[in-house]
Amino acid sequence: MRIEYDPTHDLMNIEFLAGENISESVEREGIIFDYSADGKIVSIEILDVSKRISASPLDKIDFAVTRSSSQTRSGTSR
Description:
Elements: E1 2-6, E2 11-15, E3 24-28, E4 31-35, E5 41-47, H1 49-52
Antiparallel strand pairs: 1-2, 2-5, 3-4, 4-5
């Protein structure tokens, strides 16, 4: 996953599937959802993000990953 913020255009992009082709984009109230051909969410783009979250959107990111004990660091089962 990759999170990018563009202060010039005031948008944030959260990319879940890097390199995946986008077959459909749907906008709902300034939030764009990009989908692959098989319906997976490729990315979410938030327009006017500083008006929706805060003046400094990156200050609000608190990222944590929780894995079950049956997964290794690579995400595969033991």
